[in-house]
Amino acid sequence: QSALTQPASVSGSPGQSITISCTGASSDVGSYNLVSWYQQLPGKAPKLIIYEGNKRPSGISNRFSGSKSGDTASLTISGLQADDEADYYCCSYAGTSLVFFGGGTKLTVL
Amino acid sequence: QVQLQESGPGLVRPAGTLSLTCAVSGDSIRSNDWWTWVRQPPGKGLEWLGEISHGGNANYSPSFRGRVTISIDMSNNQVSLNLKSVTAADTAVYYCAKTVLTWFDPWGQGTLVTVSS
Questions:
Q1: pLDDT for position B47
Q2: Which of B19, B68, B103, B116 is the most buried (most CB within 10 A)?
Q3: Cβ neighbours of A2 in B, within 8 Å
Q4: Higher pLDDT residue, A38 or B74?
Q5: CB contact, 8 Å: B106 with chain A?
Q6: Cα B1 to Cα A94: distance, rounded to the nearest angstrom
Q7: Which of B46, B100, B109 sits opposite A89 (nearest CB)?
Q8: pLDDT score for A2
Q9: Which pLDDT value is given to residue B107?
Q10: Does A3 lie at the interface with B, CB-CB under 8 angstroms?
């Protein structure tokens, strides 16, 4: 078992939509609808933005949405804003009380 | 609203033991929750170290099993992390977080630990 695979970077212009993928395996992402996503602003601690694949915590904008297809989970940010510029990490339950993080994706708002 | 605050030495000698504490406020550590440690080496991604339940049951990442110990101190409402036989590769910001089923919320602000002689 190893870290989940995310693209190193993605970019988009204000108002556009972007999608960040998170590819795992049949033993983690593919087996459980337990992917969470975290936003990490520069110099700050990670913040939960999506849990259980597609649920948003209270206070998180509905511009953030999650989905899954097979062994790949995705985070979509619509109506891109300048303050969305951050690092984004996925995380999946992998059974037997284990979790794995993705390598992280740097989002640049052009 | 639960808040977490990590603390401990910012510098640890190679081959020594890294020891950190996570103070929990706004929530009782006796509640039916789990508490997690995650680290982030400079410029790199997040790594899950392990978790502990209010009852003291712990799960560890295979990558750190044998070196890491997580414990819980109910009398002081805090969770502790010990990582032994450290090397420069263990230099990182260490975060504690509340585990809700399989996700983490909220997180502490993190504390930087440097391993150097």
A1: 95
A2: B103
A3: none
A4: A38
A5: yes
A6: 29
A7: B46
A8: 63
A9: 97
A10: yes
Which region among A20-29, A41-50, B36-45 has the lowest average model confidence (pLDDT)? A20-29
Residues A20 and A6 sit within 8 Å (Cβ to Cβ):
yes
Q: Which residues of A fall within a CB distance of 8 Å from B48?
A: 91, 98-101
pLDDT of residue A66: 96
Rounded to the nearest 10°, the torsion over CA B82, B85, B88, B89 is: -70
Residue pair A47/A87 in contact (Cβ under 8 Å)? The answer is no
The pLDDT of residue B1? 85
Question: What is the DSSP secondary-structure string of B39-59?
Answer: EE-TTS--EEEEEEETTS-EE
- Return the closest-CA partner of residue A21 out of A88, A77, A74: A74
> Exposed, middle or buried by CB within 10 Å (0-12, 13-18, 19+), for B19?
middle
Q: Could you tell me if A24 lies within 8 Å of chain B, comparing CB atoms? A: no
- Which single residue is written with the structure tokens 């930087």? B112
Amino acid at A44: K
Residue-wise pLDDT for A64-77, tens only, equals 999 999 999 999 99
Q: Which member of B101, B103, B108 has the closest CB to residue A45?
A: B108
| pLDDT above 90: residue B30 | no
Helix, strand, coil % over all residues of chain B, rounded to 5: 5, 55, 40
* Residue matched to tokens 């450290």: B86
